[in-house]
């Protein structure tokens, strides 16, 4: 496909945030081009892909308006329905609570979202990299050759190292960006509970984060870790921590002793909330590019898609002369900004405690299952906040 010389809106990145933005912008009557550097949408995948049910998302973010593609996930994109979540602290005691959701086939789901955008009228360019953003003109290079394409607005859905954000001065301030390095394996022949998500904590296995076993079928799972590099042992890589967890964790290792690794997935997760600004007069950022991630669990699909809907609709209104593009910043913060900030505050409170297995065990002992679920959703019950603050004072 040879692109036109100009569009109303160019979306950089065709993950859940970018495809949702492209779909809603096109539906609103804008001419849209969305661009992705991957040869095949959704491949390689870059996260475990747990998607909470719409009811769970509404409980987490009650003021958010969900895009229809988040509210109705096709059966063809579901690997495994989930009923239970388990939290396992260093001492191995298990906190369990019900949770509704599905583990996604991220390749199929990302392709489904891109297809919805294309059906709405957006044009897609795959295996095309944006090499420069100058004003509202982007330069691209890829399978369709080199092009210089102009627009009235640019949407950056191009991940935590967003070129759009850097080009538009929307990146985090130096030293304020916190990231977690995630590495995960898709495995077969694992002895797992197919109905349950499991999350493991402990500084010797996952410093500053957690390890997980997410079922993808009867004996299939996504096994991974998210590690904060600043809290890791010197010279120990995320991959080494993952191998340590799979081989040596007293509860996880027996489940994984016969597992075969079929696929390796890696990525960077921003866990410090959004930068001060996410929009300029002619550009905006969304998804991981804007830090739209629940910091307590690294979940980014729901907030990215909610923000994607807001981004697409706001950009379309902007090109129609109905609002300023900066209105996007106010709109997404109104819908879920408080939840995002609370999740960062909760993560910061847990940071000090995560440096000590003794303190972690003490924290998990006084937090009830209901409170644990609230924290996983980015909320911070007052009693839990007071208890964690007391443990942090004790540490000092």
List the keywords.
396 residues, alpha/beta, FAD/NAD(P)-binding domain, D-Amino Acid Oxidase, Chain A, domain 2, five-stranded parallel beta sheet, 12 helices, 16 strands, 34% helix, globular
Describe the model:
The structure is a single chain. With 396 residues, this protein is of the alpha/beta class. It folds into two domains: 9-73 and 106-174 and 274-343, FAD/NAD(P)-binding domain; 179-270, D-Amino Acid Oxidase, Chain A, domain 2. The chain is built from twelve helices and 16 strands. The chain has helices at residues 16-27, 54-60, 68-71, 106-119, 163-167, 238-248, 253-256, 301-319, 327-353, 357-366, 369-376, 382-395; strands spanning 9-12, 32-35, 50-52, 78-88, 95-104, 123-125, 128-134, 137-142, 145-150, 153-156, 179-188, 196-202, 206-215, 221-227, 260-270, 283-285. Strands 3-5-4-12-13-14-11-15 form an eight-stranded mixed sheet. Strands 6-2-1-10-16 form a five-stranded parallel sheet. The protein has a three-stranded antiparallel sheet with strand order 7-8-9. Strand 1, helix 1 (16-27) and strand 2 form a beta-alpha-beta unit. Helix 1 runs parallel beside helix 4 (106-119). The protein is globular. The protein starts with 8 loop residues before the first strand and ends with a helix. The model has no long low-confidence stretch (mean pLDDT 91).
């Amino acid at each position: 496909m040879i692109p036109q010389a100009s569009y109303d809106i160019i979306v950089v990145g065709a993950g859940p945030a970018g495809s949702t933005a492209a779909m809603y912008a096109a539906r609103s009557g804008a001419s849209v081009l969305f661009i992705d550097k991957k040869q095949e949408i959704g491949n390689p995948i870059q996260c475990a892909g747990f998607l909470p049910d719409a009811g769970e998302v509404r409980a987490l973010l009650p003021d958010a308006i969900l895009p229809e593609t988040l509210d109705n996930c096709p059966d063809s994109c579901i690997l495994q329905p989930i009923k239970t979540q388990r939290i396992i602290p260093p001492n191995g005691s298990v906190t369990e609570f019900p949770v509704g959701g599905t583990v996604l086939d991220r390749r199929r789901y990302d392709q489904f979202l891109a297809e919805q955008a294309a059906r709405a009228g957006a044009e897609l360019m795959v295996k095309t990299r944006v090499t420069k953003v100058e004003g509202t003109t982007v330069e691209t290079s890829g399978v369709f050759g080199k092009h210089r394409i102009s627009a009235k607005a640019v949407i950056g859905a191009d991940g935590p190292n967003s070129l759009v954000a850097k080009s538009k001065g929307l990146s985090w301030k130096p030293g304020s960006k916190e990231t977690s390095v995630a590495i995960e394996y898709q495995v077969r022949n694992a002895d797992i509970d197919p109905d349950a998500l499991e999350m493991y904590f402990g500084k010797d296995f996952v410093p500053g984060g957690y390890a997980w076993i997410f079922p993808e079928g009867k004996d299939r799972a996504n096994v991974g870790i998210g590690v904060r590099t600043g809290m890791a042992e010197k010279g120990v890589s995320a991959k080494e921590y993952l191998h340590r967890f799979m081989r040596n964790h007293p509860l996880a290792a027996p489940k994984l002793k016969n597992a075969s690794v079929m696929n390796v997935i890696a990525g960077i997760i921003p866990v410090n909330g959004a930068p001060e600004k996410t929009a300029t007069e002619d550009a905006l950022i969304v998804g991981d590019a804007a830090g739209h991630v629940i910091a307590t669990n690294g979940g980014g699909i729901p907030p990215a898609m909610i923000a994607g809907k807001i981004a697409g609709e706001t950009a379309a209104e902007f090109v129609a002369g109905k609002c300023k593009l900066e209105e996007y910043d106010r709109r997404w913060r109104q819908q879920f900004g408080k939840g995002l900030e609370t999740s960062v505050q909760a993560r910061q409170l847990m940071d000090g405690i995560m440096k000590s297995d003794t303190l972690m065990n003490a924290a998990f002992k006084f937090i009830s299952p209901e409170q644990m679920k609230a924290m996983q959703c980015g909320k911070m019950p007052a009693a839990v906040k007071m208890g964690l603050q007391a443990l942090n004072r004790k540490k000092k």
